[in-house]
Amino acid sequence: MMLPMAATPTIVESLAGWLASWISSSPDAVRFVAAALHIGLLAAFFGLPAFAFIWAERKVSARIQDRLGPTHTGGRFGWLQSLADGIKLIQKEDLAPAAADRMLFRVSPYLVVIASFASFLFMPFSNGWVAVALDCGLFIGMAVLSLEVLGVVLAGYSSGSKWSLFGGMRETAQMVSYEVPLGLTAVIPVLICGTMNLNEICQMQSGWFTNWLVFHSPFTFVAFFVFFVVTLASNKRAPFDLAEAESELVGGFHTEYSGMRWSFFFLAEYASMFFVSGLGVLLFLGGWWTGIAPIDSALSEVLGGYPGRVLGLLVFLTKSSLLVVVQIWVRWTLPRLRIDQVMETCLKYLVPISCFLFIGSVMYPLVLLSALGRPTLLPVNSIGTRVPVLPPAAVPVTTPHDHPHDHSHPHDHNHGHGPGEHSHGPGGHSSLDRDPAEKPAAREVTLRGGR
Amino acid sequence: MSVLVFAIFALAACGGALAVVLSQNVVRMAFWLIISLSSVAGLFFLLNADFVGATQLLIYVGGTVVLLIFGVMLTAQGPYVNLKTNPAEVVISLAIGGVVFAMLVAAFSGVNWSANSERLTAEFGTATLQTPGYNQQGEGSTVRRIGGALSGLRTESLRDGRAIERPGYLLPFEIVSVHLLVVLVGASYLARAKRRSGGSEPGAGPTV
């Protein structure tokens, strides 16, 4: 919650500037207001997709089972069903079993929601629209999302019920195992793009949809599907929903919960479904780019600025929602695996496959380079036009060590989302850019091959 | 503002650590450990050390504590495990804690803070010192440097603007990774050996 105040360069700063001219109060108060606005926006992006997807889950499952699903609440399609569910759940009594460890029992739903919400802090929704823009955005987002398991396992343990305990243990075993292929497949786009900044990874996939990383090589193509399967498991979605497994464990880790605390678990589940879908879209499916180069260039250049980004946001939301619908579709189509099958799928198949894909995507450009003389299959620059890297001479050296009073361009950092922006100062990055500049051919290769 | 945030995180870290010591239920201890370690990660974020903070969350909170709880669940005999400390343990831990605390106090009081603050202000200007929480220049630049240093390319920026290349930490990194691989292989070997000696149990998996 405190992060946007501490480390948000982009939107908080610009909003703070706008508010400062409006209310002209102290900068701390302005920053606080801007951060509060951010939190509000993020909470909307956290809650509203969850509401929409709970309704979609009911509708899609009903259609798959040849039923109608909600039809009355809020009109013909029952689109207010989630709201009705929420109102019902608020009214229910907040029960805790006598055998439960009261404190942990009460706290663990909040842990789940906090972990799921905090991961949204690091997700760019459109070009530069991210609450906390960090160079290690992917890493920290996945780190925070993996904390969700703590709430689940504490809920299972503190309920004082054997079904809950089984659910919690299954969830832990599953999460700890599936973290490995999740990390390995998420690293593949990172090694192609040479950055963990989600915004940069997405910007590099601009242009035609052949630039999307899913079409970058056969290995990344398979890696996307492995990533998708692993995110199903890490979100405990069917066919990997062993933690709740209502046919064996009553309700799994949430057997003893009722009312709002129960609904917190599901709010977090649907929100993190959206998060991992968004992550898949950002990493493999071109993020906020439509994949049709003329439309994209029209969006980003003709419209430019704000409207272009709003449209990018819509594109991003559409792609992520489609992936969520695929998750729902999978859930109501495939039967649940047994726990040993879940572990076997991970340890015997997904981990070796993702290791193979990792090595393959490392070798692929090298093999192509020796066979075809270029690191990509298509003759065009298929990793997307990277935002041009400034020549080293033109990079203003603005480290605090050198020019502590140089604040003549304070907004350079605010509007800079390109990779070139981070090459300020004599860091490792700028030396990488500087060194091959003496050999133009080598520089070309390093830029195209995904440095 | 950053002082307020710092106070919140620092209080949570210290309070969580105290609660770990004072509570007797193992899983509650794990919960307080989560609070304490996450607050330390928050302090890292406050210092713009985003990569270290994320690693703290991933390794300590997401990894170690989960394994701790998992171990408690797998090994517990009763529903809630309580730890009782005997007086000798209290004395030993107090002694060790006191020694560490004394060392910290000695190190802290050995630094001339006001002189250093004046020197830094004279060298770098007041702007970097007065806003400890938010530093645009320092933000987000740690990952590339850490990655470069771990792969053997450590660039050090001198005060006069020059950058010199130093040998990185590739060898320690490789040693640690091979060490971890050995641990992994050893752990899986131990797990397999135990199952063999206990007789064949083909249905051991599904009963979890």
Summarize the structure.
With 451 residues, chain A is mostly helical.
Give a verbal description of the structure.
The complex is a heterodimer of chains A (451) and B (208). Chain A is mainly α and 451 residues long. In chain A, 63% of the residues lie in helices and 0% in strands. Chain A is built from 18 helices and no strands. In chain A, helix 5 (102-120) runs parallel beside helix 12 (259-284) and helix 12 packs across helix 14 (305-331). Chain A is globular, with a radius of gyration of 24 Å. By secondary structure, chain B is mostly helical. Among the domains of chain B are: 1-83, NADH-ubiquinone/plastoquinone oxidoreductase chain 6, subunit NuoJ (Four Helix Bundle (Hemerythrin (Met), subunit A)), CATH 1.20.120; 140-197, no CATH class. Helices cover 69% and strands 5% of the residues of chain B. Chain B is built from eight helices and two strands, in the order αααααααββα. A two-stranded antiparallel sheet of chain B has the order 1-2. Chain B is extended, with a radius of gyration of 23 Å.
Q: How many distinct helices of chain A? A: 18
Lateral strand order in the biggest sheet of chain B: 1-2
CATH superfamily of the domain at 1-83 in chain B: NADH-ubiquinone/plastoquinone oxidoreductase chain 6, subunit NuoJ
Biggest interface reads:
A-B, 68 and 67 residues
Distance between the first and last residues' Cα of chain A: 35 Å
CATH class of the domain at 1-83 in chain B: Mainly Alpha
User: Roughly what is the average pLDDT of chain A, rounded to an integer?
Assistant: 74
Spatial separation of the terminal alpha carbons of chain B: 49 Å
- By DSSP, the count of extended strands of chain A is 0
